[in-house]
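One example copied in:
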Amino acid sequence: MTDPVEKVAAAVLYEGYVLWPYRRSAQKNQKRWTFGGVYPRAYSEAEGGNDPWLMQTQCLVIGDVPVVEIKVRFLHVVDRRVGRKHPDGTLEFVDELRVGKELYLAWEESVEREVVVPGVGVAELETPMRAGISIPAGSVEEPLTDDDGRVAGALVRSWRSLEGTVEVGAETVRERLFKCTVKITNTAPWSGQSREETLGQTLVSTHTILRVEGGEFVSLMDPPEELGELAEECENVKTWPVLAGEEGDRRTILSSPIILYDYPKIAPESPGDLFDGGEIDQLLTLSILSLTDEEKEEARATDRRAREILDRSESLTEEDLMGLHGAIRGFQTLRGGEQIDPFGVAGLEREAPSSVSVGGVEVKRGSRVRLWPRAGRDIFDIALSGKAAIVEKVEQDFEDRILLAVSVEDDPGREMVDMPVLGHRFFFSPDEVEPLEVEQ
């Protein structure tokens, strides 16, 4: 049985790898490898640090003598070239080649890489432990044979060298409480290549799995009240650590470049990875099945994993497809069990006051506030902590709670705040905001 943490980690590893419609020619697949990149330090510093050379996970561990194991995984970009075989045995590299019924396209693939720091006592990590990343450049050739068994060409896959370090350290915060830090750095040599070329020496889709024996991790999303301040002080760079595994189990953390909640899970109805985490499995699968034969052929030739997606989608039964239609995870009683007609909500609206008092300051439409979301809020709300915002409206819900609809002051999408679908509007209670004086 596959470890549920590993299943989620695998989904993170390939998120955005190749996107619908899974064809090389699709515009959205022209710029790839956008998640979790740890770039050569020399390149990052030359480019002003927009592409990071460091990824850092920092978390809290409780226990008498906890032992941690660290696993860092990432993708290594592989260049796939297509060669046509000439009678003299030489290869002529071409953009595409048809051999028999199969079409082969030149593109980029990836290979999974992994660095493991075996179990070590946290107390022993006051002097950090380092594991090197050293992968030499290489290439491999795969012959392509026609229906008669003659070699008609070859796929040549090549990759550049990678160099870096995984550093694991810890410090004692107080009795039975430790702060553990994992730093991933890229020290690959760089000599002024373009970003596209530099991706060949980048740790792509990098993420970290931390496991502990003899102790437990503290949720950074929803820490115990007495550890809230210490949790906020944890410095995580280009990654978001969450508890993973079975609900309530605090022995594993998944730290990924994609924002997740504690205890993320793969939906049991999902037939397999689609690499499009923002999409709905059913709609995406139906879209795959609607591709033309020519589009499917290109997708299969684009990438082995795209081929697997098409083959799996075409093998789904009607029952499988209906299973993707929707699922109820649980029920919640609303308003003391009173039945509410979902299509008869007229008269349920509450007239909100035009303003509210926050710390003795009147807050109304147009007021500037700073956001301080409480622990346990939505991860996107937590990401806005400390941001200045504008109150767009004071609202009141069905339970008579006052909410402030705000837009973030430095959000480039603020002009869309009143658009019903795309509006960049967030909701906070009055005790989650700090009034700001109007700047003169």
Q: What stands out?
A: Residues 304-315 form the longest helix (12 residues).
